[in-house]
Write a structure and sequence with these properties.
The structure is a homodimer. With about 190 residues, chain A is an all-alpha fold. Chain A is about 60% helix and about 0% strand. Chain A is globular and about 55 Å long. The C terminus of chain A is likely disordered. Chain A binds a DNA duplex (18 and 18 nucleotides) through helix 3.
Amino acid sequence: MAKPLTPRARQIVAVARELLEEEGAEALTMRRLGERLGIRAASLYKHLPNKAALEAAIIAVGFEDAAAAFEAVTGNGTEPLDTFARVYRAFALAHPHLYRLMTDQPLPRDLLPEGLEQRAAAPLLQAVGGDPARARAAFAFAHGMVMLELTQRLPPGEDPWPAWREGIAAFRARATTPGQRATAKHPH
Amino acid sequence: MAKPLTPRARQIVAVARELLEEEGAEALTMRRLGERLGIRAASLYKHLPNKAALEAAIIAVGFEDAAAAFEAVTGNGTEPLDTFARVYRAFALAHPHLYRLMTDQPLPRDLLPEGLEQRAAAPLLQAVGGDPARARAAFAFAHGMVMLELTQRLPPGEDPWPAWREGIAAFRARATTPGQRATAKHPH
DNA sequence: GTCTATACCCGGATAGAC
DNA sequence: GTCTATCCGGGTATAGAC
């Protein structure tokens, strides 16, 4: 799948990422990208087969960056789920357009390096104790919070952290699924 | 703000919604909409000022439908948060393109009827017991789960319900925010 | 590896006649 | 309230010369 890129192609992808991050998804066109590189849009096709490949390459570096950000803080002694949430949020809000490109559509898995998805997902799975369903639920929460922030769905000017704390606590507090009502387990 | 629509404009919006739901956001153009109505795209501007107004009107009816769906099941005896989750998910998956139009961008609040947002949000606030932070966290979870499903981010072919149950349980189990660790308050 | 030229398609919106 | 004609912009991508 994921064909390796030439050095020149990698450079083009790096500039494309800048363009995306600075001006948004609508600005990411072959023409505008050519402008930034000082060449014509047509010349790009000597380096990348089409726009989908360009986007897939940007997505791939995005996941690599995100995975690296997680790995940089694992095992630093802080509470794992809290740490995950902070790093996840920081990444998304620092790169909103990149984040949306990475999450808005089905992953072009056939154009992505093998194992990249798992690598990026591993820290959360560990943070919630290894249960995949719990990990997915916590991931949905984090993704949802970030999207609400990016789309300005929270009341304007309000601190999002109380909601973040609620979610972090919710996915940390219980050891396993309770049968029905609030019969919280005591840690002992 | 939200100017009232003429009956003809309402009909146009209804057809536009069909077009969106059946063919997706890229298909929602003034030309294609004109085709469905048997008129030219230019004629649409006699009824609606521009495309933004058309989208805002579609969003408004979407929220009205969603609010009605919640209100149809409130107080029917089932567990409130579970009920909310099921109705929320059912709406989003039944109208994926509409759902994304409603959530992908900041709300055009100045073009929407007064109070509509609150009306749609009320059922969840009640379901979590009235705490706004908790409600936002639970909403983020539901929104995130739906988006993961719509963007096919969950492992293909896997049942999403275990993750839904985890989240529902997570936001139901605790009574309030613990100070630091899982020192859940007892309901008394 | 870059260029020019071009094909082909699409979009939102306005003016003015009827 | 509909039409025609039009403006002006944008996009991906290919062919072939240099």
